[in-house]
Amino acid sequence: PKGDHTVPMHLFMPTDGKVHPLILLINFRPDPYDMYCPTEEILDNGFCFAQLCYKDITSDDADFENGLAGCFDRPTDGTGWGKISLWAYAMQGALDYLLTRPEIDKNNVAVAGHSRLGKTAMWCAAQDERIRFALINGSGNYKCNFATAIFDGIVMRIGLAVLFGLVLDMRHFGFWLGDALAGFTPFVIGVVFYCS
């Protein structure tokens, strides 16, 4: 690294003196008391809760000179860290501190995020064995997800079920299976595939 970079973090813990699981959220907003972040409810349900704001780590643009991004040399060949990797790295750094706290159950750590910060939480969890859970919300393009669901539900499931029924016309196996069973088999295969 070319220098130091500190990131502010909000940490909330139940006051009962017990050890609690942790949720570490990377958020779009720096304020943990907004309508999209149910901090009080998280605490009421027995979790420790920590929050980082991605803007405090590095900006969400092509500028790799600000924040944490400016602490690392960026190769010109396109192999350098992207913003999601930098945000995930900062989450891991936050965990380094959080797991020193006696109030936190080190075996029950979750990371959370929404949209591209959901991808960040997934990447952080994939890279760090200390993380047991990843709570991801909307980590993709909704149009793409909807199109995938339509393609899978209509084209793949129904279309292939009908295709199986046509291609696997097993009537010529009637002398082995009996005509009734041979005629019914493509339907069974199609239904099983459709329901899978």
**Topology pattern, helix = H, strand = E:** EEHEHHEHEHHH
Number of distinct helices: 7
Helix content: 40-55%
Mean pLDDT: 80
Class from secondary-structure proportions: alpha/beta
Q: How far from one another are the termini?
A: 49 Å
Radius of gyration: 25 Å
| Shape type | globular
In what order do the strands lie side by side in the largest sheet?
1-3-2-4-5
Report the strand count.
5
The parts where pLDDT drops under 50 for at least 5 residues are 170-182
Oligomer: single chain
Percent of sequence in beta strands: 15-25%
Biggest pleated-sheet summary = 5 strands, mixed
Descriptive terms for the model:
single chain; 196 residues; alpha/beta; 5-stranded mixed sheet; 7 helices
Could you describe the 3D structure shown?
With 196 residues, this protein is of the alpha/beta class. It has seven helices and five strands; from the N terminus they run ββαβααβαβααα.
